Amino acid sequence: MKPYPSKISIKIGPIEKVYEGRETPSLVLIKPKLKSPDPLDVIRDIQEFHLDDQCLVPYMEWVHNLYIYPLSVNMTTFSGKINARNLCLQVVLKDNDAVPTVETKNKDIFGQSRDPNYVELAQTAVQYHEPKPNFYEEIKIRLPSNLVPQHHLFFAVQQVQCKPQSKKTKGDPVTVPVAFAYIPLVSEDSKYVTQSLSLSLSLSLSLS
């Protein structure tokens, strides 16, 4: 990846006034409400992750978010009609297998800065002509309060079409699914799955 030099300035100090339009990391509004109509004036708090069990503040809010950090996909040994290059990864939260695709009506994923607050699916950036791309995105999901064994994360490796405009025909899909994987969010002994995982990819979907 090509590095782009940049600078960031951070000011840390005591809170001297009550700011309007603050939102928790779960996008819950903290009063007072924002009077300005400009959504850019909203202040969003950053989620803290503690390295130990010490809690610096009392428990004052119900938080049930899941953070996912995809690392890479390896399609170097893939052979098929589709050239497994220009790959991206799509992630959705599903509560059943009635439709084994990335399609879902649930908006449980926190959107990026260009998106609404909640979206149906998350998608990584595309690495051009790379069969083994590395990913750097953080995917944040709002989990339901009551997880059941049917809840799972569904992953789809998509190949992004890069045909020249002159060779495209009407109806050509922008992305073509190449491989799939899933993770149950609750194990058989009712424990949450939170460790690092390496998943095997399937080249087809089947309900049987």
Report helical residue fraction: under 10%
Radius of gyration: 20 Å
Distance between the termini: 41 Å
CATH arch. level architecture of the largest domain? Sandwich
Characterize the overall form.
globular
The H/E string reads EEEEEEEEEEE
Low-confidence blocks of residues: none
Structural class based on helices, strands and sheet pairing? mainly beta
The CATH class label of the largest domain is: Mainly Beta
Number of strands: 11
Q: How much beta, percentage-wise? A: 15-25%
Q: Count of helices? A: 0
Biggest sheet strand order reads 8-5-10-11
Domain module tally: 2
CATH topology of the largest domain: Immunoglobulin-like
Descriptive tags:
single chain, 0% helix, mainly beta, three-stranded mixed sheet, 208 residues, four-stranded antiparallel sheet, Immunoglobulin-like
Structure description:
With 208 residues, this protein is an all-beta fold. The chain has 2 domains: 17-50, no CATH class; 65-184, C2 domain (Immunoglobulin-like). The protein is 0% helix and 23% strand. It has strands at residues 22-23, 29-30, 43-44, 65-68, 87-94, 109-110, 118-119, 122-123, 139-142, 152-160, 175-184. The strands form 4 sheets. It has a 4-stranded antiparallel β-sheet with strand order 8-5-10-11, with no helix packed on it. It has a 3-stranded mixed β-sheet with strand order 2-1-3, with no helix packed on it. Strand 6 and strand 7 (118-119) form a beta hairpin. The protein is globular. The N and C termini lie far apart (41 Å). The mean pLDDT is 80.
